[in-house]
Amino acid sequence: VECQQRAGRAFLDRDQWTRKSIRNVARAGWFSSDRAIREYCEKIWKVQPVQVRLDR
Fold it and tell me: Do 13 and 19 touch, CB atoms closer than 8 A?
């Protein structure tokens, strides 16, 4: 509850909220759905990629 109250107060201070939001995104790291799927394959499912030929 205390954390939610602090977040609510921060939200009311537009400058503070903007700074916190930018820092949050900057610290999030690189995300890619392709990378996430590749990591699931390697670390969880223990499967290797398969080459797929796309004929046009």
Answer: no
Q: Identify the domain containing residue 10 by its residue range.
A: 2-45
- pLDDT confidence of residue 17: 94
Whether the pLDDT of residue 22 is over 80: the answer is yes
Would you mind telling me the total number of residues written for the chain in this entry? 56
For the cut 80, the answer to whether the pLDDT of residue 30 exceeds it is no
Phi-psi region of 46 (alpha: psi -120 to 50; beta: other; left: phi over 0): left
Helical spans, DSSP H, in the chain? 2-12, 14-27, 33-39
Give how many domains the chain has, as a whole number: 1
Amino acid making up residue 7: A
CA angle 11, 6, 13 (to 5 degrees): 30
